[in-house]
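Appendix B. Worked example

We walk through a single record from start to finish. Start with the input: the chain for Glycosyltransferase family 4 protein, Micavibrio aeruginosavorus, length 364.
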Amino acid sequence: MKVFFAIKKLQDIAGGAESILCQVASRIAENGNNVTLYSMDDEQAQSFYPLSSRVKWKKTGILKQQKPMGLFAFFKIILRMRHEMLREKPDIVIAFMHSMFVPLSFSLIGTSIPIIASEHIIPKHYKKTPHEFFLLLLSSFFVEKITVMTSQVKKLYPALTQSKIVIIPNPVKFYVEVANKRKPVILNVGRLNEQKDQETLIRAFAKIAEKYPEWLLRIVGEGNLRPKLETIIQDYGLENRIVLPGVNKDMQSEYENASIFATSSLYESFGLATAEALSAAIPCIGFADCIGTNEIIHHEFNGLLVDGKDRVSSLSDAMDRLMASSSLRESYGRNGPQSVEKFGLAQTMAAWEILIEETSKKLK
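Next comes the structure step. The output line below is what the pipeline stores for this chain.
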């Protein structure tokens, strides 16, 4: 089977969508299929995540940088995609993120080439860009299936769109708990952006930092809010207590050293880093009103879910509670791995393989 995967950009991006794309594309290629990865990266681009040598990566260089598409660029991309897809004649196309599956779905109109759209964000993301959400909904008429992470996310879409939605969560990489390596570290993993809201996390930690002088807050990731977050940390005088190390490929070391995982996200499609922390037996803290978090953290079983009205105080109180009690951390931590077993790699890969196989045969 000739399978095309597509994403706008892959170069050095450490996100959940990029991770699952590389895993699924590699798995489908290793199973003996002819797999091509189509992206708008420049020729010298490198993937943050491992990609099988059996996957042919076609880097088109259409866009020179990460930026919203203008109208002219949008139609130019559609025409170019259509030309290339008609030349390549794939049996199926799987496009990741709306920035790719929207133009690609329009480019394939009338071609009989089936397309699966893989969405990795929730409708709330489009609050400031409703035109993008309109195009997403419009594109749903031209795709065979749409994948989302959870049942809660599916319910946020109109009924007509829901009829095409298939739920496939991100596969969770299980990290090994290493005995006696836990340190007084609160860990957060994610892009430094508005959605992840690490500002709230920093302010919450600052409220109790003096009470727990041995504890550190470690925020692993990179993003446009780094300068702002660094300024806030400096204002609190906590440069030696709150660390922003950037992206780290060695996540085993991050998880085995942490005693608490805290997510301050406003919304998630699927809290992959939270699930990975649970797999490593780390108790987690998140907000009860955060979709993508509240389906993974089970209150007072594998962590704490807190109220989202006074975000700083609620998060600070929960951190205080776990920092003060090693027995509570151990109790919640023990329950972590079993709570994310259903998100294992084998289950997720099987779901993707079935979906690709069934969708490719549908139009034959």
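Two observations about the output. The chain has a mean pLDDT of 93. Residues 61 and 130 are 28 Å apart (CA to CA).
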